[in-house]
Automatic annotation (TrEMBL):
Pfam families: Aconitase (PF00330), Aconitase_2_N (PF06434), Aconitase_B_N (PF11791). Keywords: Iron, Iron-sulfur, Lyase, Metal-binding. This is Bifunctional aconitate hydratase 2/2-methylisocitrate dehydratase. Its EC number is 4.2.1.3, 4.2.1.99. It comes from Mangrovicoccus algicola. Gene3D superfamilies: Aconitase, Domain 2, Aconitase, domain 3, Aconitase, domain 4, Aconitate B, HEAT-like domain.
Length: 930
């Protein structure tokens, strides 16, 4: 058997799944293809030639290296293939976009043959993915008087790689397709339970929405071959929940344009829209692919004679349709006037200028946002090498300034980390900024795509300016099945070689960690002025400012140590009053959303920074708030801490990082040890008064302010997906917050889940305390519904074992995870017992473990989207209701939601997560967990 015959066998298997041959990334297989191409009588020659030309992945894959080397031989006349002329070989190299192909082109451009050198130079002028070593070769050649190198550099200084691209069409005809009504989670576009296939783009594309929807999209394309299909969230926001590069990839696969005829299943330029626009992190992902994201505003609130919203019987605003976007409607996007118009282009429907800022238009023209990032870097290098000013080509960054205006916390962080901004210039919200990224996170179900993106942009090592990066294993922690066994070790090996600290040691020296990525990032962030980027929407740290991002943006941050984005507006959240003794901090989080809506009517958090003046909560507990802000549709969140609280959080972080070092997780570069040194420096700055904890200026300007009144929170609160609301736009949002009394002790609960990134060590202790108390009161503890408990990290379990709490949990459990024999299959049925599951995301991710279809689940997690934690049946919709740990535990024991009185009795004497608002004098108010 050969690699090629194995490949043929795989092709036959894929045919049965209606799939084309999988793109090739293995250099050894490409070497076999080449041998068969050169053997003119080989029976597989024609197919091998086809696979070599059209089905070999570019970038830094080993396949790309072998392909580029053979094309070089053809160009130099050292090999002859009738079907691949030297000119065609140059064309193929031009589509390989970096890595080995750029190395080959530089070899040829700087070589002895003048004719070949000139042709290679012309191809290089179209390339942007050059790294330091490539630039150094050009500079050395230029310094030595090489005319071709000079010609290339002059082209780069003029940014001809960009200016010679076609402009964005002035008029784009689209035909609408309503993907769903209400908010559309990225789970609809790329379901979590299909995460294993994301790096196989064609296979993964088959999971978008439904097969019926895919057929309908194809039918629209047949009817309108000259138009682009626009996917729409009717009466909702498109892409809530997560960034999901795989979701955008799927939309592009079905509705976009091919990136290259020689790179299969990689499309770009999708068009998506929503009545309420696009979720912020998903919109970033759309930009990565050079796509268009429109805010339709096609439904508006109906107003009465006094200009106030008309409410229905449920207290929700009644919506009126301004114009129809029903499936099959043809519309015109006027990119010059930045208006959405009717089919004829005569009637203006809505202003869409926010989708066509100069920067976004550049992404569309270049086909991706990071082509622009690399292009700007390349132009700057070329101009500096030549000693000239770069030709003004790219849209100048938007700069918003105001003399004497104070800064919000995010404005301070962005100005501190800004790159390319003149010294002394202070930028405000709305400004476009390149910033240094300090911490980068990659999780395991997007990591394979991040690795692909790194290969595609020809990156081989992490940027030296990144303080630390972490690759998690939490999203595939629950079930070590064949899919995980095939994908995860390969991912960990790639990332470890790239310079990332990895949860799993490719050499098997240290115990595999499945800790939830956000928790680890929260620990390894050791400066409140840091910028963090992570491949998950819940990259929301309680120190610094963190942004959830798609796999492409994560790859860009890893490769360059940079990110580019506007400085967001901020909403200031402060607290007053006092927490009732029976309340948990999770109820404060829910109350923040509810009281914000009461105070402002609309969700003022959407697309903005939530600057929460939490002051007295340590990082673990404060993370509960910042983590939730992803569900509030916020761009990010910043915790404003007191000095001594921040010091306590940094000391805790140092301890957790040291545990990682003790386990053997540090790399050759000493990344983790460097973080401890950085934390020590920050602690000394705070203690000495040289640089106190981050806080905004008194004169800072906010988009809005929210004051949460703790005195109003008297009973536990539940975020309800409201699955049967008559208005589809009101289902599966996090805006329906209800007191527990709403359910009248009658809401049946089929399963309870305590876990995910929303819980901390204190939550695990609460479970243990409640079980002890209930046994003492009743003689025993019986569960009328299953209770699944998944600690977010191993260090929490270790600490619980040391303090005696894990023994209590073991006593009541009917199942306890075993790392020596991890589950090989996802659980499909649950008994009425306590399950102690492996640290990780578990039910919250929805890609492995699920509740039974149609169940009503009460969970501490964050996801209440349709089909995520629990799927529907034909008879009943699955529900994922979200509440505090004590509510979930008690509900599993009762098999229903408790009354307020039952709840108060059950938590009496239990150390719940308490919070006291900061006082006027910082440092005088403490949480009980300090």
């Amino acid at each position: 058997m050969s690699l090629y015959t194995d490949y043929l066998a795989e092709i036959e298997t894929r045919k049965g799944e209606d799939l084309h041959p999988k793109p090739i990334d293995d250099g050894a297989l490409v070497a076999e293809l080449i041998a068969q191409i050169e053997d003119l009588g080989n029976e597989h020659r024609d197919d091998s030639l086809n696979f070599f030309i059209y089905n070999t992945l570019p970038g830094t894959t080993s396949a790309a290296g072998v392909k580029a080397a053979f094309l070089k031989k053809i160009i130099l006349g050292e090999a002859a293939v009738a079907e691949i002329t030297p000119d065609f070989a140059f064309e193929l190299l031009s589509h390989m976009k970096g890595g080995p192909s750029v190395e080959v082109l530089l070899d040829l451009a700087l070589g002895e043959d003048a004719a070949i050198a000139e042709k290679a130079g012309e191809v290089l002028k179209t390339q942007v993915f050059l790294y330091e070593a490539d630039m150094a070769r050009l500079k050395d050649a230029f310094d030595a008087g090489n005319a071709v190198a000079k010609d290339i550099l002059e082209s780069y200084a003029k940014a001809e790689f960009f200016t010679k691209l076609p402009d964005v069409e002035e008029e784009i005809k689209v035909v609408t397709y309503i993907a769903a009504e209400g908010d559309i989670s990225t789970d609809l576009l790329s379901p979590g339970n299909q995460a294993h296939s994301r790096s196989d783009r064609e296979l993964h594309g088959k999971c978008m929405i439904t097969p019926e929807a895919q057929a309908e999209i194809q039918e629209l394309q047949k009817q309108h071959p000259d138009k682009r299909v626009m996917l729409i969230a009717e009466k909702g926001t498109m892409g809530v929940g997560s960034s999901r590069m795989s979701g955008v990839n799927n939309v592009a696969l079905w509705t976009g344009k091919p990136t290259s005829p020689y790179v299969p299943f990689v499309n770009y330029a999708p068009v998506v829209a929503g009545t309420n626009g696009i979720s912020p992190i998903f919109l970033t992902t759309v930009g990565v692919t050079g796509g268009i994201g429109l805010d339709l505003k096609n439904w508006v609130k109906k107003l009465d004679g006094e200009g106030k919203p008309v409410l229905n019987n449920e207290g929700n605003p009644v919506l009126e349709q301004k114009y129809s976007v029903a499936t099959g409607t043809v519309l015109t996007i006027d990119t010059k006037a930045m208006k959405l118009k009717d089919e004829a282009g005569t009637e203006e429907l809505v202003d869409v200028s926010s989708a066509f800022t100069p920067q976004k238009v550049e992404f569309m023209k270049a086909g991706s946002s990071y082509a622009i990032v690399f292009g700007k870097k390349l132009q700057t290098f070329a101009a500096e090498t030549l000693g000239v000013e770069p030709t003004p080509v790219f849209a100048p960054n938007k700069e918003v300034t105001a003399e004497g205006q104070g800064l919000t916390a995010v404005e301070k962080i962005f100005n501190r980390n800004a790159l390319g901004v003149p010294k002394g210039k202070t930028l405000l919200a709305g400004s476009d900024v390149r910033v240094k990224v300090n911490i980068v996170g990659s999780q395991d179900t997007t990591g394979l795509m991040t690795a692909q993106e790194l290969e595609a942009m020809a990156a081989t090592v992490i940027s030296p300016t990144v303080d630390a990066a972490y690759q998690s294993g939490c999203h595939t922690a629950s079930v070590w099945d064949k899919k995980a066994q095939a994908n995860i070790p390969k991912l960990m090996s790639f990332m470890n070689n790239f310079g990332v600290v990895t949860a799993r040691d490719p050499k098997g020296v240290y115990h595999s960690m499945t800790d939830v990525i956000h928790k680890v990032l929260n620990d390894i962030t050791v400066d409140d002025w840091d910028i963090i980027v992570g491949g998950d929407s819940h990259t929301r740290m309680s120190k610094g400012v963190a942004f959830g991002a798609d796999s492409g943006t994560v790859a860009l941050a890893l490769a360059t140590g940079e990110a580019t984005m506007p400085i967001p507006d901020s909403v200031k959240v402060t607290f007053k009053g006092q927490m009732a003794p029976h309340m948990d901090f999770r109820d404060v989080v829910h109350a923040t959303q509810a009281q914000m809506l009461q105070q402002h009517g609309d969700n003022v958090f959407q697309g903005r920074i939530i600057e929460v003046h939490i002051g007295t909560l340590l990082a673990d507990q404060a993370f509960t708030f910042t983590d939730w802000t992803a569900e509030m549709k916020a761009k990010a969140s910043i915790c404003i801490s007191n000095d001594e609280t921040l010091i306590g959080s940094l000391e805790l972080a140092k301890h957790r990082i040291q545990v990682m070092i003790d386990k053997g997780m540090d790399n050759a570069a000493g990344t983790l040890a460097g973080l401890i040194a950085k934390a020590d420096k920050r602690i000394e700055e705070i203690r000495s008064g040289e640089k106190p904890a981050l806080k905004p200026d008194d004169g800072a300007k906010y988009f809005a302010e929210v004051v949460v009144d703790l005195d109003l929170i008297d009973e536990p609160m539940i975020a309800d997906p409201d699955v049967n609301n008559a208005d589809p736009s009101r289902r599966y949002t996090h805006d329906t917050i209800r007191p527990i009394s709403y359910y009248g002790s009658e809401k049946k609960v089929d399963l309870g889940f305590v876990g995910s990134c929303m819980v901390h060590k204190g939550d695990m202790k609460i479970v243990a305390q409640m079980l002890k108390n209930l046994e003492k009161a009743n003689g025993k503890v019986e569960f009328k519904a299953p209770l699944v408990v998944a600690a977010p990290t191993y260090n929490i379990i270790d600490e619980l074992k040391a303090e005696g709490d894990w023994e209590i949990l073991q006593k009541y459990s009917g199942f306890e995870f075993d790392d020596l024999f991890p589950k090989a299959n996802a659980r499909t049925e649950y008994e009425n017992i306590l399950y102690l599951e492996r640290p990780g995301c578990n039910l919250c991710m929805g890609n492995q473990e699920k509740a039974a279809k149609g169940d009503t689940v009460l969970a501490t997690s964050t996801r209440l989207f349709q089909g995520r934690v629990v799927e529907d049946t034909a008879e009943k919709k699955g529900e994922s209701l979200l509440a505090s740990t004590p509510v979930v535990v008690l509900s599993a024991i009762l098999g229903r939601t408790p009354s307020a009185e039952e709840y108060k009795t059950a938590v009496e004497g239990i150390d719940l997560t308490k919070f006291a608002p900061p006082t006027e004098k910082p440092g005088t108010a403490r949480s009980v967990h300090f």
